Amino acid sequence: MDKKNIDWSNLGFGYIKTDKRYVSNYADGAWDNGEMIDDDMITLSECACVLQYSQSIFEGLKAYTTENGHTVVFRPDLNAERLANSAKRMEMPVFPVDRFIDAVEKTVRANEAYVPPYGTGATLYLRPYMFGINPVIGVKPADNFQFRIFATPVGPYFKGGAKPITIKVSDFDRAAPNGTGHIKAGLNYAMSLHAIVTAHQEGFDENMYLDAATRTKVEETGGANFIFVTKDNKVVTPKSSSILPSITRRSIMTVAKDYLGLETEEREVYFDEIKDFAECGLCGTAAVISPVGKINDHGKEICFPSGMEKMGPITQKLYDTLTGIQMGRIEAPKGWIKVID
Ligand code: PLP
Ligand code: COI
Q1: Separation of 205 CA from ligand 1 center, angstroms?
Q2: How do residues 107-161 score in pLDDT, each as one tens digit?
Q3: Whether the Cβ atoms of residue 82 and residue 76 lie closer than 8 Å to each other
Q4: Which residues are catalytic?
Q5: pTM of the model
Q6: Is residue 338 within a helix (H) or strand (E), and if so which, with residue range?
Q7: Which atom of ligand 2 is nearest to the CA of 287?
């Protein structure tokens, strides 16, 4: 397969239009058969539910070229499941798991020339999403929906790649205790836009959100979960009903336990205890594992011993093992890797 002429190694996390996208429509209580199309533009009613009341959900996963030249995707079944949970909470129809996986496969195949070659550090990011399309003016869910997947080749989410970042404790809340923080709805990201612009203007890379009810516990950032490493090498991750159940984080906890023999804990993490941790990282499909060197709490700095130059040693081992599994250098747990080609 001839690859496109793209400077793969210098890609950032941006949108590049690729050749084909998947689309399926839901009307009269059923999904149609779905197809791959060329047109990247969408024409909608001015009163479409997604435009008026933000009825939209999405997912994110990646396709990789492995060391031995296969094209693979990482745990698409978990994205399908999470999209189904998001759909239920948002009064949208479920797109069946098997159809989701089939659509992912078709999208990757149709855009194979955009799957970055092995060793470039880039990957093909897949964005499945669903939204309400018919006109709705009284507040209620749509009846008709569209499910799509597009693909775009991406590099690192944070400029500087694996260099530690600096984040701030946000004064804004990301999710309410009984709200939608645990699902992947566009509305969660809309309400974080002002907070991320503010953080960037102040010179920070990201926000750390605290729990909205007590503002004493660590939740997550706008687009990733946290992992911490204690001074005695335990991997700790926050447990909360208002954070997104990250597939990367769940995979990292398995890697820590089963591949690296480390103790792991998923529990409430109080902001007050993070000054005692040895390492901190953000994890997600886009973020992979991005090390955090410093947290700024209203002018007071928490500097992790791992410093601002490189990842801490445990974070590095987690990173190497996870990406080794994704790129086919390390044997994956059963069912984690779906081979496309
Ligand atoms: N938390 C939020 C708010 C996210 O948007 C994401 C990205 O998908 C994650 C966490 C990480 O989840 P995953 O590892 O499944 O990509
Ligand atoms: C992902 O990691 O897939 C996300 O959706 C996060 C987003 C901030 C890009």
Answers
A1: 16
A2: 999 999 999 999 999 999 999 999 999 999 999 999 999 999 999 999 999 987 7
A3: no
A4: 184
A5: 0.98
A6: strand 337-339
A7: 2
